[in-house]
Amino acid sequence: MRVLEILALLPEAEKLLAEYGLHCFHCSQNATETLLDGCKSHGFSDEDIGDLITDLNEMLSAKPARPQTLTLTKDAAVALQKIMETEGKIDHGLCVGLDEAGGFCMEFQHEPTSDDKTFCNNEVPSVRLFASPLALSRIGGAMIDFREGRFKLDLPADQAGLPTANVACSCGSACACTEERK
Question: What is the DSSP string of the chain?
Answer without folding.
Answer: -BHHHHHHH-TTHHHHHHHTT--GGG-GGGGT-BHHHHHHHTT--HHHHHHHHHHHHHHHHHSPPPPS-EEE-HHHHHHHHHHHHHTT-TT-EEEEEE-TTS-EEEEEESS--TT-EEEEETTEEEEEEEE-HHHHHHHTTEEEEEETTEEEEE--TTSTTS--S-B--TT-TTSTTTGGG-
